[in-house]
Design a protein that fits this description.
about 140 residues; single chain; alpha+beta; rod-shaped; 6 strands; 2 helices
């Protein structure tokens, strides 16, 4: 009987080690999923704000009189479109923007009847595998 009891104790320890390993693998998998989910949410939020900023700038281009000087806002490199609150704490979102013109006639620097406006919006992505600068580029033709 004692040999059988030893066998049961040994199996109990092996089962316990196996159960602990299974729980650890499950917990690590859940942590990994939540971490990736959080990173993707931040990346999606940044991209969404950049797209909204691009739409706003495109509306301004559409409303701008052809041949007039650019508004001061277009010349400023930094843009802070929104402040996002995450768990009650403000998260400042900074974007850089540049305007380029193919011949400059849209902003009174040339004599053409058409031009192409390029808007580049940049932001820093501090999460994920591809950390660093992200760009969103938009080109729109304009006519007199």
């Amino acid at each position: 009987m004692r040999a059988g009891q030893r066998l049961r104790r040994g199996l109990g320890i092996i089962e316990l080690v196996f159960a602990l390993a299974l729980v650890c693998i499950t917990v690590l998998t859940l942590i990994s999923v939540f971490s990736k989910s959080s990173r993707h949410a931040v990346m999606s939020r940044n991209r969404t704000v950049a797209i909204l900023l691009a739409h706003t700038l495109l509306d301004e281009v559409k409303a701008h009189p052809y041949g007039s000087p650019p508004p001061r806002r277009w010349l400023e490199p930094k843009e802070t479109p929104v402040t996002v609150y995450v768990e009650g704490r403000p998260q400042q979102m900074d974007f850089e923007k540049t305007f380029e013109y193919s011949n400059g006639s849209f902003v009174g620097q040339g004599a053409g009847d058409s031009d192409e406006v390029s808007i580049v919006i940049r932001w820093s992505e501090g999460v994920g595998k591809n950390m660093g600068q992200k760009d969103l580029s938009v080109k729109v033709p304009v006519w007199r």
